[in-house]
Write a structure and sequence with these properties.
Elements: H1 5-8, H2 12-33, H3 35-44, H4 65-70, E1 84-90, E2 98-103, H5 104-120, E3 128-131, H6 139-151, E4 154-157, H7 163-173, E5 177-180, H8 182-194, E6 206-210, H9 216-226, E7 229-236, E8 241-247, E9 255-257, E10 262-267, E11 281-287, E12 298-304, E13 306-307, E14 319-320, E15 325-326, E16 331-333, E17 336-338, H10 340-348, E18 353-364, E19 367-376, H11 378-381, H12 385-403, E20 408-412, E21 427-429
This protein binds 5'-O-[hydroxy(phenylacetyl)phosphoryl]adenosine.
Length: 433
Amino acid sequence: MYFNEEFETLPRPALEAVQLKRLQATLERVYANVPFYKQTFDKAGVGPCNVNTLDDLQKLPFTTKQDMRNSYPYGLFAAPMEEIVRIHASSGTTGKPTVVGYTARDIDMWAELMARSFVSAGAHKGDIIHNAYGYGLFTGGLGAHYGAERLGASVIPMSGGNTKKQIMIMQDFGSTVLTCTPSYSLFMAEAALEDGFDFRKLKLRVGIFGAEPWSEAMRGEIEEKLNLAAIDIYGLSEIMGPGVAIECIQAKQGLHIWEDHFIPEIIDPVTGQRLAEGERGELVITTITKQGIPLIRYRTRDITSITYEPCICGRTHARITRMSGRSDDMLIIRGVNVFPSQIESILVGIEGVEPHYLLIVERQDNLDTLEVQVEVDERLFSDEIKVLQSLSRHIEKEIKDMLGVTCRVKLVEPRTIQRSEGKAQRVVDNRKL
Ligand code: DLL
């Protein structure tokens, strides 16, 4: 029932003692090796020696995605490059991604936490794990892959896309566990049905879904259409990748966050003050075992709440509730993180278009679609249709190349996108989760 029983069920006082010891070691490490932390700690008038209890963590300043961006690509690394064995990245607020590096021990720790996560979801040795998270810079594919191997299961490294083949392989290879985004699971089930194949006939028993927001209603739909237990998994590349937190199959009531490696806090996103158990706010995470890029009080921007109530599964680690949104404007479109400001910076670099745009996100056949409406200047608008068409294709290609997201560009007449008197309304998200 557990992958690492001792640590997954540590009584809270022992767990907190482990946390404090590891936190102090991490603070020493970053203070000595990362100039950014030395500066921000000094500025706040605190140092590693001022953290004598877990509560003292609150004295330390936050770290943000912007801080990571400012130190692009390797400025926050706390290990020399010779010790970094893997690099991953995810979208930042500009065209530049957020870069993370792992030492061999970090990869080992990640594999263990993913293996724990698989067991928590009800997977075991002997399972055939069909991994349709993308392999590449995105942490989903390789993160789940190494965890599945650590568990001792058979992993099929499918990556995303090529839906027909995915279905054939799952059927022929007898996959018992599916890992992918929740929206892709529904897309596959419906694509199969169109071909006259009922997904429910597969041997799949468990699905481990995350990397984007989803709802209880969607869980119901997935469980019905795929005939499996659907488990919510959370993670972010900055902190590690998938497997930071996961539900247990016994309760499916909140995601256990692996507290012997991460210290969670919930804060008010406006004031930065810590909130009480059960109150909804922004999740802040401090990593306490990472070597490559430890992060102190990292603001995830994800909105959730935390509970320390005991769980029927016997794990003692706190649970966070399903993510209900973000405290910034990041969109997740087919698993790709996109900020409206990234699209804006591409548009302003293109001759003939105005900086007035609207992003329309929909979900069609369970896949996200993005339409970018943008005004063109007077002169261009009266031009031939061919010119306009080629401009649309050009913008679509730029967005695809820079951000990795496919969109449809619709050029509109000057002054047709509604102007706002306050905060510009740049996004219409029509997805009903
Ligand atoms: O999405 C890591 C991951 C891969 C998690 C596979 C789970 C499964 P990033 O690309 O850095 O990393 O995106 C992280 O995705 O801050 C959340 O906003 C969102 N997210 C991830 N998991 C969930 C979830 C991976 N279960 C960002 N529910 C995070 C809601 C999620 N949002």
